[in-house]
Amino acid sequence: MRINSKFFSIVILTVLLGLSIACSKAKPSDDTITKDVETKVAADPDTKDSQVTVAAKEGKVTLTGKAKTPAAQKKAEQIAKEEPGVTAVDDQIAVESAPEQAAAPVAPPPPPPEPIVVPSGTTLTVRVSQALGSKTSQTGQTFLATTAQPVSVGGRSAIPSGSTVSGTVLNAKAKGKIKGAGELALVLTSITVRGHTYKITTQVLDNTSKGKGKRTAATTGGGAAGGALIGGLAGGGKGAAIGAVVGAGAGLVGGAATGNKQIEIPAESALSFQLAAPLKLPPPTE
After folding, report:
1. Measured at the alpha carbon of residue 250, what is the angle toward residues 247 and 254, in degrees to the nearest 5?
2. What's the predicted TM-score (pTM) here?
3. Phi, psi of 73 (to 5 degrees)
4. Which of 98-102, 123-127, 241-245 shows the highest mean pLDDT?
5. Domain co-membership, 253 together with 186
C-alpha cells in the first residue's frame, strides 16, 4: 500500500507539472505579447512608418500612437488580434491628417496701364462751333469747339479727333472808328475725352487790331499756305500766346487798309492753342 501511495503521488505531481508547463506555453506573458506585437508592427510594410505603442495586460492589448493612413491603423489592429495569447484589442491609434497641399502659386495680375500725360506745350487744334469776334462776342462768354486733329503720346491715343472742348472769351472789345484797338482774347478751359470731362489750362490766344489799319498780330488771307500765325504779340503783349489759324477761308479777318473792320472768327474756323499745364488722362480701354 505504501508503494502504491508513492506511485500515485508521483503520477499526480507529474500531471500537474505537465499541465503547468502546457498552460505556460498556451498563454504567453504580457511582456511577450507586447514585444511580439511591436516587432511585427515595426516590420510590416504597411505599418513600419507609423508610430504605434503597444501595451498588454492580462492578454488585453491597447494600441496607441499615430498611423500614417487608415489602412496602416487597420493593419496594426489586425496584427495585435492575431497574436497568440491576446484576448482583446483596444485600438486607440489616431490617423495622421494628410498634409495640406500647397496651393499652386497664382501669378500676380498684370500692372494696370499707365495713365497718359499730355505734356505742357502740346498743341490742341480745335474747330470753333460758333462765330466769335471783337464786336459780336462778350468778355466772359463761353464757346464750344471740337478737336480738329487727334493727339497721341508715346504712340498711344490720348485725345481723339472730334473731342468736345469748352473755352472762354477772356476779352472782347470792339474797335472804335477813330481810335481804340479792337481786341479778342480766347482760352480753352475744359475738354471731354471718351465721355469724361477734364479741366485744362492753355496759353491765351490774343489778337489786337488797332485803329487806322495797324495790328499787332497777323491775320489770315486763306491762301495756299493754309493759315497764318495769330499769337506772339509784339513786345510780349497780353500773354504773348502762340496760336495758328489753319485751313483756307478760316481765320481772323482785320481791316488792314481802311481800319474799320473788326476782328472776326467765322464758325468752323480752326484755331491752335498750346497747353500751359500737363493734362493727365486714364489709359484708353480696349
Report:
1. 135
2. 0.50
3. -65, -45
4. 123-127
5. yes
Query: Using alpha carbons only, what angle is made at residue 59 by residues 58 and 65, rounded to the nearest 5 degrees?
Result: 105
Show the cell assigned to 189.
478751359
**Domain coverage including residue 205:** 116-281
Residue 41 has pLDDT above 50, yes or no: yes
Give the separation between CA 50 and CA 48, rounded to whole angstroms: 6
Show Cβ contacts of residue 237 under 8 Å, excluding neighbours closer than 6 positions: 206, 208, 216, 217
Taken as a whole, the chain contains a residue count of 286
Q: What's the confidence (pLDDT) of residue 4? A: 60
Beta bridge partners of 182: 209
- 89 and 121 assigned to the same domain: no
Read off the CATH number of the domain in which 258 is found. 2.40.128.260
pLDDT digit string, tens, across residues 91-108:
988 888 766 666 778 889
How far apart are alpha carbons 101 and 92 in whole angstroms? 27
The answer to whether residues 91 and 137 belong to one domain is: no
Count how many domains the chain has.
2
CA-to-CA distance for 3 and 1, rounded, in angstroms? 5
**Amino acid identity of 59?**
G
Instruction: State the virtual CA torsion across 73, 79, 81, 85 in degrees, nearest 10.
Output: -140
CA 206 vs. chain centroid, Å, equals 45
Domain assignment present for residue 59? The answer is yes
Q: What is the pLDDT of residue 243?
A: 36
Q: Which residue has the cell 495680375?
A: 109
Give me the CATH number covering residue 56. Answer: 3.30.1340
What is the spatial distance between Cα 17 and Cα 4, in angstroms, rounded to a whole number? 20
